[in-house]
Amino acid sequence: MVKSIFKATILFVLIAVTAYLAFYYAPIEKSMGVIQKIFYLHIASAFSAFVAFGICFYANLRYVFTRRPKSDWLGVSAAEVGLAFISVVLITGPIWAHPVWGIYWTWDARLTLTFVLGLLYVSYLLLRSMIEEPDKRALLSALFGIFAFLDVPLVYFSIRWWRTQHPQPVILGGPGSGLEPRMRISYLLMWGALTGLLILLLNARYKLEALRASVEQLRREAEVR
Amino acid sequence: MKNLDSVLAAYLAGWAIFFVYYISVSQRMSALRDEVERLKTLLTKGK
Q1: N vs C: which end of chain A shows fewer Cβ within 10 Å?
Q2: What DSSP designation does A37 have?
Q3: Quick one: which H or E segment has residue A199?
């Protein structure tokens, strides 16, 4: 308990510092103005979601080959945490878009594929909730999770492959792209804070799944008696 | 500053999602711990 409070306090301080940097240290972008400050949370959440879905993909592949329950626990934990991060992306994006584009949403390749990504992982969790038998649930959801991850590279490369309303990348976007140094520091610290949050949430969710497996085991024992 | 309210709304919504999710995980964990205790008691009585 003390350990959890300590971790949460460190993260809270880190988040407060990063918010301060994003609001006061990072300069105001010339063309968009203050609304561009959503960038720090929006992009860092998107990258954290990709990391979480990447962990889910790895765990799903591992489950298919090893059939170890721990891989299944990691898979579902990462999927749920990734969904929290992608929800932040899908909410902050339209808030940013409205003053800049004049619309909250458009069905361009990047936005549509990101929305589909969210739906795929909601489906992954729904699929799990519909299957009672643990081994069958783990295998089918692992196979579905492997398929769902295919959307991640499509989301990432969509703005390079197709003409979209969504702007071109400013990070790893090639010549002419990049961030002003103070913006870069603010962004990297925000991403660091969100990565810390990702680890904290993933750890908590994994423990929950392990506990759920114990409950299922105890229930089976109780039924046998 | 123009659009500052939108920036604040975006940050508040973002942190609220993470906070609510963490609370939901903690609550589910607490419910499962109670269930483990209940089942263990049930199994001990059955012996």
Answers
A1: N
A2: G
A3: helix A181-224
- Which chain B residues are Cβ-neighbours of A34 within 8 angstroms? 1-4, 7
| C-beta of residue A49 within 8 angstroms of C-beta of residue A155 | no
A212 touches chain B (CB under 8 A): yes
Q: Tokens standing for A224?
A: 């046998």
What is the pTM for the complete model shown?
0.91
> Could you report how far apart the first and last alpha carbons of chain B are, in Å?
70
- The first and second tokens of residue A108, run together, are 């361009």
Rounded Cα distance, A32 and A108, in Å: 21
Asked if B30 has any chain A CB less than 8 Å from its own CB, the reply is: no
Q: Which of A101-105, A124-128, B5-9 has the highest mean pLDDT?
A: A124-128
pLDDT-based confidence at residue A10 (cuts at 50, 70, 90): confident
Inter-chain touch A211–B36, beta carbons under 8 Å: yes
**Amino acid, single-letter form, for residue A56:** C
- Distance (Å, rounded) from C-alpha A91 to C-alpha A100? 15
Q: Which residues of B touch A221 (CB under 8 A)?
A: 39, 43
